[in-house]
Amino acid sequence: MCLAIPAKVLEIHGDRAKVDFGGVKRDVNISLVNVAVGQYVIVHAGFAIEVIDEKEALETLRLWEELLKFEVEPTHDN
């Protein structure tokens, strides 16, 4: 399975950018997109593959947060 996750662009240095995945910062390759600081991108395998609007990015990050919370917190049905 492949995942593509939204991230906010914090800094740009040539074809590399520092991005924020909801608190986790990483460097990614931005050579495939035309992006500016402050915009959101979808990142897959270390490459920004699409620029998306902030509303969509924040909603996707919120959903990821919910899924991770559900996955981490065990249920006590037993």
For the largest beta-sheet, the strand count, sense and barrel status come to: 5 strands, antiparallel
**Topology as a string of helices (H) and strands (E):** EEEEEH
CATH uppermost class? Mainly Beta
- Order of strands side by side in the largest beta sheet? 3-2-1-4-5
Number of domain modules: 1
The computed structural class is alpha+beta
Number of strands: 5
Uncertain spans = none
Query: What's the alpha carbon Rg, rounded to whole Å?
Result: 14 Å
Number of helices: 1
- Gross morphology is globular
CATH architecture: Roll
N-end to C-end Cα span: 31 Å
Q: What is the average per-residue confidence, as pLDDT, rounded to a whole number? A: 88
Report the sheet-strand fraction. Answer: 35-45%
Briefly note the CATH topology name. SH3 type barrels
Structure description:
A five-stranded antiparallel β-sheet has the order 3-2-1-4-5, covered by helices on one side. The radius of gyration is 14 Å and the shape is globular. The protein has a single domain, classed as SH3 type barrels (Roll), CATH 2.30.30.140. Helix content is 24%, strand content 41%. It is α+β, with helices and mostly antiparallel strands and 78 residues long. It contains one helix and five strands, in the order βββββα. A hairpin with a 2-residue loop joins β4 and β5 (47-52). It has one helix at residues 54-72, and strands at residues 5-13, 16-21, 24-29, 40-44, 47-52.
